[in-house]
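Narrative progress, year one. The postdoctoral researcher (J.K.) led the effort to move from monomer predictions toward full complexes, under supervision of the PI. The following entry was the first complex the group processed end to end, covering 392 residues in total.
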Amino acid sequence: MSTAPFDERLADLLRVAATVFARKGYHATTMRDLARESGMSLAGMYHYVSSKEQLLYLIQRRCFGAVLEGATKVVAEESDPVERVRAFIHHHLTFFTANMNEMKVLSHEADSLSGDRAEEILALKRRYATLLQGLIVDAEGHHPHVAAYALFGMMNWIYTWYRPNGPVAPSELADVMGQLFLDGIRGETARTTATS
Amino acid sequence: MSTAPFDERLADLLRVAATVFARKGYHATTMRDLARESGMSLAGMYHYVSSKEQLLYLIQRRCFGAVLEGATKVVAEESDPVERVRAFIHHHLTFFTANMNEMKVLSHEADSLSGDRAEEILALKRRYATLLQGLIVDAEGHHPHVAAYALFGMMNWIYTWYRPNGPVAPSELADVMGQLFLDGIRGETARTTATS
């Protein structure tokens, strides 16, 4: 068996698992549920992963790894600090509006991993949050710590209300949130400049 | 048995149930777990509620009812449209930083009720969201629909990272988020005014 089909079938399995976890919840889902939904046998599934927790870990690692790598890249392509923040927001929303089930699972199952797996995911999340806080500081934004988590909340909460095929396209959502956030963190600076 | 002790013991039970649901998840929690944690007998618990779902419904109704009623009141006390938005934000964050377990349960178990109970809670949530959207329109904020849900995200996401007894007090959190949001939704207006 070549490497490529293994990776592809694992990717399919992760996608199915994220869909079922998002609908039923991680704890209520059994490996048998996942076998049925993926059309694989239980034995076939255990060829790819050793446990349900490993599936959750792989979903989280894939998402946080991809979003961190992608954000680092798009941010490096901009030289203006404000445009870097905008690029970060566009990238995050483009990624997660295409991965809404994963977004819900990442939000709800943040505490469901244990041991080394939990540590590794936490480290990825910290690097991602630190990247954003640095961008906010460079853009002369106020209160970078609260602002960074306010932005993550604004963006991640979309899994509760936003429909990617609804009236607001993902790129428009990113434009509106980007402008709202940038005006927000730079508000007092803008006013001070205007009146001085 | 008088009415008051019944209400008080029910309130205690709702508080314990929210704590356990927040820690273990609603679906993984049994009535037996709740009896153990509350120090009540199973029979005693069934004197107050008919099922685990009724407990979840009562937690949601109490929170959304209280936050809607309180917000309506504080908003009515302000005449300036911008100050009304600020009052809404302060009220929401004051309420939920004192009810963090409930906030997590409300976020994670939004889809766990069914039938009339689900309808009733949805109606309360819609009234609350409509109130906020009206305030944003009155304050001449842009994109009131996206802005309202961006604000709910910013505020509700705090259950994942904020500690009420940490370095940022709830009132400071409300000040920072209030200013960020108000500068954000009124940003383009402010710039247009400054340059015209």
